[in-house]
Design brief:
Elements: E1 4-6, H1 11-20, H2 36-42, E2 44-52, H3 61-76, E3 83-85, H4 89-98, E4 101-108, H5 117-126, E5 130-132, E6 150-154, E7 163-167, H6 172-184, E8 187-189, H7 195-204, E9 210-211, H8 228-236, E10 240-243, H9 247-250, H10 263-277, E11 282-284, H11 303-312, H12 317-335
Parallel strand pairs: 1-2, 2-4, 3-4, 4-5, 5-8, 9-10, 10-11
Antiparallel strand pairs: 6-7
Length: about 325
Amino acid sequence: MIRVVDMHCDTISVLSQRQRQGEEVSILENDLKISLAKMEKGGYGLQNFAMFVHLKKTDTPFLECMQQADTFFQLLRAYPEKIGIVRNWKEIEENWEMKRMSALLTAEEGGICQGEPAFLRILYELGVRMMTLTWNHPNELGFPNGTMHAAEEDNGLPGEKGRVLTRYGLTEKGIAFLEEMERLGMIVDISHLNDDGIDDVFCYTKKPLVASHSNCRAIAPHRRNLTDEHIKMLADRGGVAGLNYYVEFLAQGRTGGERVSGIEDILRHLRHMKKIGGIDVIGLGSDFDGFDNPVEFQDASGMQFLAQAMERDGFTTGEIEKVFYGNVLRVYREILS
């Protein structure tokens, strides 16, 4: 069984919402795609649990984040024999040697910090070791996927059809946050960030970074996916892109029949990403519990079916191990030391 390291799921945000609605929730057994029981069956070594906050649905994003952190600690600390919360490479390594699973806390939406570096540092003290700068809405740091590389606007002069170009990169505050994240030892996650913003991240950082749950735009032309150029840049930096299992990011535009995330769809992105950036740039970033469509191998329990499919497709054991855990752990070893 090949050990699994997954850079992104939304399980904690779902369970936290249910908990605040008065439901009894469990990380051991539940109806979601991620549970400890499913992870054990699927061969998991480490799962990143994201705190996700929808900026349009709350006026207090940092408070919402703290409530999700509370859910994370409550649920995960109830099963220390099965999983250990980790903050650094040493703790990951110790759990790995004990064959105990690890849980790493992350944040999806830099707007939870409300532009306050103090909130970023508090997140780090809580154990957050990875953060996306945006989700799907502009915030104090930058702009999400879907904000065009350059917006063409009428220049307003009567009788003329000239255009002005507006660039949507990171804000000054966003650049300052990047510098603080690198100083602290928090991994910069470019998933959800727009193309100009991604260019800025590479310009203003030096360490390896990740796209925790993004696929190839050349295969599925969704704005959330990475361009070939950005895949190459990520590879050159020693970073990793986590394959996302959401059907729209795997096979956008497919019509007819049930919309299922298929293993062949994932393999298509795997092959392309290997061709463009090499095997060392590929990891896993399921996005489990962040989407509703079914997956061919069902949930976390079925991850070994993907490993078997990769083997049938011609990937070597060493390549499968790099994709399933080796590449991500290489980045963690460097940054979370």
